[in-house]
Amino acid sequence: MYRLHCFAQSGNSYKVAFLLRALDQPFEMVFVDFMNGATREAPWREAVNEMGEAPVLEADGKRMTQSGAIMTYLARKHGAFGGATPDEQQEVLRWLLFDNHKFTSFFASYRFNRSFGPAAPDPAVMAWLKGRIDAAWSIADKHLAASPFMAGNAPTIADISLSGYLFYPMEESGYDIPANFPHIAAWLERVKAIPGWVAPYDLLPGERIAPRW
Ligand SMILES: N[C@@H](CCC(=O)N[C@@H](CS)C(=O)NCC(=O)O)C(=O)O
User: Fewer Cβ in 10 A, N or C end of the chain?
Assistant: First the structure.
């Protein structure tokens, strides 16, 4: 059985959990106490992930990290959500890289600073991050105006990756997606229709935390 190391606020963990559900694969979840510093402790890094990050998936005698790499492994293994042709598979990879570099990463940092950080966010840092988010999201919004899913006509792990953080409550990020990114908003409804979809806080272990700042 798959074992997923994860926690409720982690959109990157949510991506893998959602994919496992979409693939109809049973899995066990291991709570990572991220908010109390678990991933920064040397023993955790030694035993679980040298990169100091969730998610981690244990499967087939391996311990895997990086949601994009984990999802690629699962899509190949189960023959679904990986893209139907070599061209689509290449497109999936292209969007996974864009997601990890620009789409999820800036937004995850922005949301963390705004809701869960140890101190009130620095306005200059937040303004810089917001500029980067708006630029990346505008690119995805334009792409989705012409395509139902990121890599063609059917959902893939690229959709699961890019959408992961967007299913968290709006008050955590302050981002009003329907008002500002209408094609992303419409696409999120299509992603939600994938069998197995469930909201992050109804799926992942750990307590929901009220936004701090
Ligand atoms: N690119 C990685 C990012 C993973 C990541 O940043 N995970 C967060 C939790 S959602 C984390 O553990 N961060 C620890 C840190 O940055 O110190 C992935 O997609 O798995």
Answer: N
Q: 51 CA distance to ligand 1 centroid (A)?
A: 8
What are 183-190's contacts with CB under 8 Å, separation 24+? 183/141, 183/142, 183/144, 183/145, 184/137, 184/140, 184/141, 184/144, 186/144, 187/144, 187/148, 187/149, 187/159, 187/163, 188/163, 190/148, 190/149, 190/155
Residues lining ligand 1, judged by CB closer than 6 Å?
10, 12, 39, 52-55, 66-68, 100
Contact (CB, 8 A) for 54 and 206: no
Could you report the per-residue pLDDT of 190-211, keeping only the tens digit for each? 999 999 999 999 999 999 999 9
pTM more than 0.90: yes
Kindly list the structural domains of the chain, giving each domain's residue range(s) and its CATH number in brackets, ordered by start. 2-80+197-202 (3.40.30.10), 86-192 (1.20.1050.10)
Which atom of ligand 1 has the smallest separation from the CA of 9?
Answer: 10
Ligand 1 midpoint to CA 12 (Å): 7
Nearest CA, atom 6, ligand 1: 53
